[in-house]
Design brief:
single chain, 5 helices, 190 residues
Amino acid sequence: MLRIVAAAVAITAALALAGCQGTTSAAPTPVQSTDLTSSDGGFDQQAVIGVVLVHDDADLAADLRTGLTDAGFRPDVRVAPASGAAASQRTAVAQLVRKGAKALLVHAARPSTLTGVVQTAHDAGVVVVSLGDPLPATGTGGDGVSADYRVPAGADDADTAATAVETVQSLQRGEKPETDPSDGDTTDSE
């Protein structure tokens, strides 16, 4: 009788442990600007790349859509209307983070209004690249949370788009984007 009870307990314990060892998949390491290296960074070339622009960026939107598509990415370009641009951009950034964008290219209508959603993007492991003006840091105590990289406005929209696409390609490969030595504040960390 004691053997039967011991066998039942052993079988129950084995079944309980087997139930705890279900199939799991390791979550991918998010690409972070602070520790981006070729050994841990990068993302799939078919990744969604979010683009959030202001209402007068129609040419830039077209250039980015074409450049990112030609590079093998899936761009999701959102252009804010003239009225309510800041709120529209906050919503667009939040939606793109939920959609799984790996990188966000943002030309902010009012940079200070995006601080909360930029923090959310960082928390989700999304790399944020500001187009044109830098995005301000969020939080208190100078935590430095802002755009990971900055692509300054180029001579024309095609130049800005080409530099932004090169930046995304570097991130996709798990590399830090190169900076322009003649201007210390190009695509370098903010």
